[in-house]
Design goal:
This protein is mainly α. Helix content is 66%, strand content 0%. It has helices spanning 3-11, 15-36, 40-57, 67-86, 111-119, 123-134, 139-146, 150-171. α2 crosses α4 (67-86), α3 (40-57) crosses α4 and α7 (139-146) packs across α8. The longest helix has 22 residues, at 15-36.
Length: 181
C-alpha cells in the first residue's frame, strides 16, 4: 500500500492503517521524542501524545510537502508543549550572553555519550540546543515556538554548549585503541 493510500485510510479512522502508520514512523518519531525528553518514559508519553494529535489532525494534511516533515513538526510541537506549560525558561538580556564554541573530536567522543549528556541538560537548555543545533531552527523560530525572547534562546544555547563542553572535558575519558599483533 502506498503512503497516499495509507493516509487516506487513516483519514477515514481505519485502525489497521493507523497501526501501519505507527509501525512505519514510530521509531523515527520516538528518536525525536527522546531528544526533547529528559527520560525514556517521558519520551514514550510524548510519542503517544504525538500520534494522538497526528491521527486527530491528519484530515488537515493536504498532501502538500513532505508527510514525514509534517508529522515530525507535530511531534516536536507536542514535546515542546509540555515545557511551555512548565515555564522552564528564565529571561536573560542579550548583554549577558557569552558565546561558547563547542568543537567535538568525533574520534574521542562517542555519539552515544554525546546524546546521553545532551539528555542530561536542564530542560530549557536541552530544548534550545536540540532545536538550534540538531534540527536547524533559527533563534527567531525557537523564540516563537517556546514563547521566549531571542536573547533567552541565545543565552540558553550558550549555556547548553558550556555545560556540554565542561562535561566532555572533565568527565570523558578518550577511547584508547589497542593494537594487537
Amino acid at each position: 500500500m502506498s503512503l497516499d493510500q495509507l493516509i487516506k485510510k487513516c483519514k477515514k479512522q481505519d485502525a489497521k492503517a493507523q497501526e501501519q502508520l505507527y509501525r512505519l514512523y514510530g521509531s523515527k518519531l520516538f528518536s525525536i521524542c527522546l531528544k526533547y525528553s529528559n527520560n525514556y518514559a517521558s519520551a514514550e508519553d510524548t510519542l503517544q501524545d504525538a500520534f494522538i494529535t497526528i491521527f486527530d489532525k491528519i484530515e488537515q494534511y493536504k498532501s502538500k510537502g513532505s508527510f514525514e516533515g509534517w508529522i515530525k513538526r507535530i511531534t516536536i510541537n507536542t514535546a515542546l508543549q509540555k515545557y511551555r506549560k512548565q515555564k522552564v525558561f528564565e529571561i536573560i538580556g542579550e548583554d549577558q550572553i557569552e558565546e561558547v564554541e563547542l568543537e567535538i573530536d568525533e574520534d574521542s567522543v562517542s555519539l552515544d555519550y554525546l546524546l546521553e549528556i545532551i539528555q542530561q541538560l536542564p530542560d530549557r537548555y536541552r530544548l534550545v540546543f536540540n532545536l538550534y543545533v540538531l534540527d536547524g531552527y533559527s533563534h527567531k523560530e525557537i523564540a516563537e515556538m517556546l514563547t521566549i525572547s531571542i536573547g533567552t534562546s541565545k543565552s540558553n544555547l550558550a549555556r547548553a554548549r558550556n555545560i556540554l563542553k565542561e562535561k566532555i572535558e572533565t568527565n570523558h575519558e578518550p577511547r584508547v585503541q589497542s593494537i594487537e599483533g
